[in-house]
Amino acid sequence: MEDGATIRAEFHGNDIAVSSRDPLIGTLDLTSSTDTTVEVMLDRYSAEALLSVIVQFLAQGQGGDAPSSPPLPSN
């Protein structure tokens, strides 16, 4: 793979593998269209940041994709 290349991958609802609880560290697996697994490394800070941008993304939905519950409070 070329440096700086974009890989499009999907989340298929798999669990996050927790490798440590203190400090909190784990991986989230994504699957590309070529069946390549992309491991997203997470710690507490990055998981909270990811959660925040996902809530912001969901808030953009309209019509049938409108948010169905109140947004989570941001820290």
Structure in words:
- The structure is a single chain.
- This protein has one domain (9-63).
- Helices cover 21% and strands 31% of the residues.
- It has one helix and four strands.
- The mean pLDDT is 88.
List keywords for this structure.
four-stranded antiparallel sheet; 31% strand; 1 helix; 75 residues; alpha+beta
List the helices and strands and how they pair.
Elements lengths: L8 E2 L6 E5 L2 E9 L4 E7 H16 L16
Antiparallel strand pairs: 1-3, 2-3, 3-4
Tell the overall outline: globular
* Low-pLDDT residue intervals, each spanning 5 or more residues: none
Average predicted local confidence, pLDDT: 88
Indicate the percent of residues in helices: 10-25%
Main β-sheet: number of strands, strand sense, barrel status?
4 strands, antiparallel
**What's the end-to-end separation, in Å?**
37 Å
Count the beta strands. 4
Structural class: alpha+beta
What is the rounded Rg? 15 Å
What is the count of helical runs?
1
Range of strand content: 25-35%
Order of helices and strands: EEEEH
How many structural units, i.e. domains?
1
In short:
By secondary structure, the chain is α+β, with helices and mostly antiparallel strands. The protein has one helix spanning 44-59; strands at residues 9-10, 17-21, 24-32, 37-43.
